[in-house]
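User: I'm writing a tutorial on reading structure tokens. Could you give me a worked example: one chain, its sequence, then its tokens, then a sentence or two explaining what the tokens reveal?
Assistant: Sure. Here is the example chain.
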Amino acid sequence: MLEEVVDYILKRGLTDLTLRPLAAALDTSPRMLLYFFGSKERLIAEALSQARTREQEEWTRLLSTRGKRRDRLALAWEVWSSEENKWFLWFFFEVYALAMRNRKRFPGFLERMVKDWLSFFEQAVAAAGVEPERVTPLATFILATIRGLHLDLLATDEKDRVDGGFREMLRLLSLPRSRVGRDVRQRPFAKEGA
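And here are its predicted structure tokens:
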């Protein structure tokens, strides 16, 4: 049932979510939804957690494919910025905004949305051989850039321009450090031929 709840919310969003139409779509009753989830807020929290798990599994799958690190990140971007993934992005940013206005409504959500995703990027940056003191700042830059590009894409639907911004981020990550005020020894995504 949770998977069906996630699919319903991804397609329709949270703004007008009420239990009666949700229950009808799932061929159950509002009373049964409350029995299973306890409250509407708990239902949303569990749906959000499940949607997040789906997204992280997809991310892990994409990054574990063969090929250069840079190519794997580009593939992940293609999936994340696809038409099919827009429903998840709308849901994600809708909850993100609600949680920023009232942290008690979705406890721990904001912290998890940063820490969980940040660790993926920290691992990739560390695997590229970046010095330990630069791993977290660089991973933060990547995560914030990707989130900003997603917001831009949702706001404007200008995929070509936003894709260009993503490619520019990859290019910046591949620059020798002398081009950005450092020595030439290392490029974060240049290892593995990226």
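What the tokens reveal: The chain is about 70% helix and 0% strand. Residues 178-185 have pLDDT under 50 and may be disordered.
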